[in-house]
């Protein structure tokens, strides 16, 4: 999602989109996963249904790759994680990396908060 101003942590991304504060740009990207169980892939990760989700099926690290076809400025990244529903699968660490290709990615943000609702990518 892009936004002209800093988005408050814990803000509802759908409400922010309805008010025009942010714009969802994930559909402009190619999404891939390091692994997934059948029926728990990119479609479920992106379907806006809180009852469906991505479930990895491989060794760590578990990766979600989001690649845009052209250079794209992303100011805010919103991630929904429901620790109360499934603490064993809720990530304990999320790393955000950016770059021009897979080989020059640089880490810009790391969060170790298990109750993550959003990460603001501005350092």
From TrEMBL:
GO biological process, alphabetically ordered: anaphase-promoting complex-dependent catabolic process; cell division; protein K11-linked ubiquitination
SMART domains assigned to the protein according to its UniProt record, in alphabetical order: APC10 (SM01337)
PROSITE patterns: DOC
CDD domains xrefs: APC10
Gene Ontology CC terms, in alphabetical order: anaphase-promoting complex
Protein source organism: Dromaius novaehollandiae (Emu)
DOC domain residues: 1-123
Record gene name: ANAPC10
Keywords assigned by UniProt, alphabetized: Cell cycle, Cell division, Mitosis, Ubl conjugation pathway
Official protein name in the record: Anaphase-promoting complex subunit 10
Protein family according to the UniProt entry: Belongs to the APC10 family.
Protein's UniProt keywords contain Cell division: yes
Any Pfam family hit: ANAPC10
Keyword Nucleus: no
SUPFAM superfamilies reported in the protein's UniProt record: Galactose-binding domain-like (SSF49785)
């Amino acid at each position: 999602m892009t936004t002209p101003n800093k988005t408050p942590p814990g803000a509802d991304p759908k409400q922010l989109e309805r008010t025009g504060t942010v714009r969802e740009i994930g559909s402009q990207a190619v999404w891939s996963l390091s692994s997934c169980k059948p029926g728990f892939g990119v479609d479920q990760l992106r379907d806006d249904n809180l009852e469906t989700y991505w479930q990895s099926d491989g060794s760590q690290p578990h990766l979600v790759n989001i690649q845009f076809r052209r250079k794209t400025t992303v100011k805010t990244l919103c991630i929904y994680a429901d620790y109360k529903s499934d603490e064993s699968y809720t990530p304990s660490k999320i790393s955000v990396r950016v770059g021009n290709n897979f080989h020059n990615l640089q880490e810009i943000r790391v969060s170790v908060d298990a109750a993550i609702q959003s990460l603001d990518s501005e350092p």
